[in-house]
Each structure stands twice: as C-alpha cells, then as structure tokens.
Specification:
373 residues; alpha+beta; 5-stranded mixed β-sheet; 42% helix
Length: 373
C-alpha cells in the first residue's frame, strides 16, 4: 500500500503523533473536536483564540459555543452529522459586536474509526467576514445602479408624456377650429392615461399598492380571468387552450393574482403579434404547491434576455421601452408580476419550450398563511 492510503497515514515516515498534533494546532482553521453527543473533547489554538479557553472546557456542549439565538439549530445539525456521517455547513455570526459582527462558515464533519464507525464530530470555523462584506458591498452597488436605471427610465417616460401634453396644448391654443381642439385634447388625455398607468405599475412594483387583499381560490381566479378575456384573445387571432386539474383550495389575494395573470398574458400576446396559440395549465406541482403555466407560440426568449426579464423597463431589445403610445404597460409587467408573486410567497420563472415559444411558471404554496396587509 502507498503512503498516501488513508489506512496507513499514521504509519507513514514522519507522521508520528507529535507531527499530527502540530498539524492540528497550527492549522489556519479553528477546530473543536466533540464526541457523538456533541460534547467538547479538545480544541486547537485557533479555536481558543476565537472562542476563549473557558468556553472550550472538556465536557461542555458544543452548542454553547454559539450565540444564544443560534444554539437551537446547532444541536440538531450535530445529530444529523452523526446519523448520516456526512459533512454539514452553515453560516453564523460570532463576536465583533452588534455594529461589526464577524461572519463564520462552520463545517460539522464526522470523525471516523478505521472500521468506518463514527467516533465523534469536528467543528471547523472559517472566517468569511471579508468575503461577506464584499458581497454586501457589491449587492448595494448593484441596487444603486438599478435605482439609477429605474430613475432614468421613469424620467424618460414622464418626459415623453409631458412633451406630448405640451405639444398638444400648444397646438390647441394656436388653432381656432373645434375639431383641432378636440384632437389636441384627445392626445392630452392619452398622455395622461399613459402617465397614470406608469404610476400604478410603479406602485405595484414598489409593493406600495394597497389593492384589496380579499382572498379567493387560485383555480377560481384563473378561470375567472380567462372567461373574461377569451373574447379579447380571439379578436387578436389567438387560440386559447386551457388545461386544469382539480386541486384543493389554494387561497390567494385575488386582485394580485389577476394582475400577475394579466401581465403574463399581455407579454404573451405581444410575442404573438400575428396571432397564435396560448396554452394555459393549472395543476399540482407537488404536495405543497400549485403551478400555473402560460405558454405562447411566439419567438421565445433570447439567452441574452433571460437574466433581465424581471427588471423594470427592460424590453426584449435590451433597451428602455420607448413606445407607450397605446397606453399599455411600458416594460413593467414582468417586474410587477415578479414582485406580486413574491408577496404571495411564490416563485416565478421563465424558459423556452422546444418547438413553441416562451413559458412562464408561477408556483404558489397551497398552505402558506396569508399576509395581514
């Protein structure tokens, strides 16, 4: 057998007990060894510097090494490691004070005998404070960049609306004929409608919309929406194929779900400018959730667009939605849908269907308690 075989590690030249103890004590990780009950057996120098000698007294429970609010989850993880003989990782804050806590990644690993039976567990503490802080800084920078993009998009759309209003009013004041004034007022009303629509969508996107929170069954709400809009789809030369399975009642905020469905359907209709087929299915995803799928027969989602689909004011051309002349949602529909689904404790995702177009899946929990909003 080679010297690298784990069964002969202790017999390899130079690997006596003193060497192994030096390896244990000099390691860069704080290591705490425990028995199968989670009681401390020994620790290395790094652990004593981090946690203090008194906390590492032999026989103490390993969960006492952690802040009081974390102890409840540590003991079950130790038991899980003993039962499965598999390593487990979790993240915790230790020391540093409330204003500047230190972040640690903790690994709980099994310690095995030569015959494979478990002898105890080891807790390995790795300081990841710098990495976590850097990730938070990058996240904050990303939010600021997104805020700047959103502010620019809002200014862009409102500027268009205000320019349209100013132009129409200027035209009206310089024309003395009644038809010309009516046209100018109609264009002004259209611009105001677009501005109102942007405001309503922004309120929903910001989760500041206080629409009715009346609960209704998800299946009933979906059936109601398509019963009300089937004629509109037919007028756009879009065939509706609806497949739904009988499921248990899933209470959801009715108005929020109607907005989500409406925005997804509008997105699908836009993808089928010359008409097509809209497939809608509603079924149990698993024991705890319901899935609503909406599939169009359009051109699908380009790979470059996937990561931006749910960003506000993003269009499939990767630029700000410029034409709001119809008064429709200016690139906010999917962002609003994403936000409202999250409020309902669900998930929304998008993908392409081979031979078809894009499919959006909305997964809602069956038994999640409703919000008190």
């Amino acid at each position: 057998m080679s010297s690298g075989d784990p069964d002969t590690l202790a017999l390899a030249p130079g690997l006596d007990s003193a060497y192994l103890d030096g390896l244990f004590q000099g390691g860069g990780f704080a290591i705490v060894a425990c028995d199968v009950e989670g009681r401390i057996v020994t620790s290395n120098a790094a652990a004593r510097r981090l946690l203090g000698q008194e906390a590492l007294d032999s026989g103490r429970a390993a969960c006492d090494l952690f802040p009081e609010n974390e102890r409840g989850r540590v003991a079950p993880l130790v038991s899980q490691c003993v039962a499965t003989i598999e390593a487990i990782e979790f993240q915790v804050r230790i020391g540093g004070g409330e204003a500047d806590p230190l972040e640690y990644s903790v690994w709980i690993t099994p310690v095995l005998e030569r015959d494979g039976t478990i002898r105890g567990v080891a807790l390995w503490f790795r300081d990841i404070t710098t990495r976590v802080r850097l990730a938070r800084q990058l996240e904050k920078r990303g939010r600021l960049e997104s805020l700047g993009t959103l502010a620019g998009a809002v200014a862009h759309h409102y500027n268009n609306a205000l320019c349209s209003i100013a132009t129409s009013l200027d035209y009206a004041t310089n024309m003395n004929t009644l038809p010309a004034m009516r046209n100018a007022l109609r264009r002004t009303a259209d611009a105001l409608t677009r501005a109102t629509n942007i405001t309503q969508q922004l309120l929903a996107f910001a989760q500041a919309d206080r629409r009715s929170a009346d609960l209704a069954d998800a299946t009933e709400t979906v059936l109601y929406y398509f019963d009300q809009h089937e004629a509109r789809l037919k007028a756009r030369n879009i065939s509706l194929l609806f497949d739904w399975q009988l499921t248990e009642i899933c209470p959801v905020p009715r108005d929020k779900l109607l907005i989500v469905i409406g925005n997804l359907v509008d997105n699908a209709v836009d993808a089928m400018a010359g008409g097509g087929t809209l497939d809608v299915s509603l079924s149990r995803r698993d024991e705890s959730s319901l899935c609503l799928s909406i599939t169009d027969s359009g051109g699908g989602i380009r790979p470059s667009d996937k990561e931006h689909l749910f960003e506000p004011f993003y269009t499939t051309k990767g630029e700000l939605a410029a034409d709001c002349g119809t008064g429709r949602n200016p690139g906010l529909g999917l962002a609003v849908a994403h936000g409202l689904v999250a409020e309902m404790h669900g998930e929304i995702s998008a993908d392409n269907v081979p031979g078809r177009g894009a499919r959006f899946d909305v997964v809602l929990p069956l038994n999640h308690p409703p919000d008190d909003k």
